[in-house]
Specification:
Blueprint (H helix, E strand, L loop, with lengths): L1 H20 L3 E3 L1 H4 L6 E13 L2 E14 L3 E15 L6 E15 L17 E3 L1 H10 L38 H7 L1
Antiparallel strand pairs: 1-6, 2-3, 3-4, 4-5
Length: 183
């Protein structure tokens, strides 16, 4: 009995993961067959999104798909929280990121924009790749937990935001050696 329960649970989890992967797939067939100017909003909200190198929580957003003579214009806006490591004090913190994109999915190859996006024959557009790429572009290169982060002590490694270790912190200018060359 227990073995049967585990198999059902595993299949449920596999289906759940598959459902999460397909959350950003939209059937736009009815928009393709609509008149020029028609548009529709597709709101999204899910507790977490986990993919190769992207982990987000509290994800929400909206995808607006509109019909044009050349294809479908897509305007999307999303937000979500991700974990980052501070570049100064090395603590892990949550930070909200917000991103958006606008792309044209052409009906024909000759109308294709620089992005090279075409409306698929089955009219099922999967926005997972665009969602992921634009989200990663918004990740800070050197995340900082707060503007007044004091960082780590250069001598003992103490997080100066938590406790002052007593060592004298000498601020040096990275360009001071170049200034000496001018003399």
């Amino acid at each position: 009995m227990l073995k049967f329960s585990i198999i059902i649970h595993l299949r449920y989890e596999e289906n759940f993961v598959e459902t999460l992967k397909n959350r950003l797939r939209i059937n736009v067939g009815f928009i393709v067959n609509s008149t020029v100017g028609y548009h529709r909003d597709f709101p999204f909200e899910f507790p977490s999104y986990i993919d190769e190198d992207l982990e987000l929580v509290d994800v929400s957003g909206n995808i607006n798909v509109g019909r044009t003579p050349q294809g479908l214009i897509v305007a999307a806006t999303f937000s979500g929280k991700s974990k980052f490591e501070c570049g100064r004090c090395l603590t892990v913190f949550d930070k909200e990121i917000v991103w958006d994109f606008t792309e044209l999915f052409s009906f024909k190859e000759e109308n294709m924009s620089d992005s090279g996006l075409l409306v698929p024959e089955d009219a099922q557009i999967d926005f997972k790749t665009l969602f992921r790429e634009y989200a990663i572009l918004e990740f800070p290169i050197r995340p900082i937990c707060s503007e007044d982060c004091k960082g780590l002590c250069l001598e003992c490694g103490q997080n100066l935001n938590l406790k002052d270790c007593g060592h004298i912190q000498v601020k040096t200018n990275a360009f001071s050696k170049l200034k000496d060359l001018l003399n």
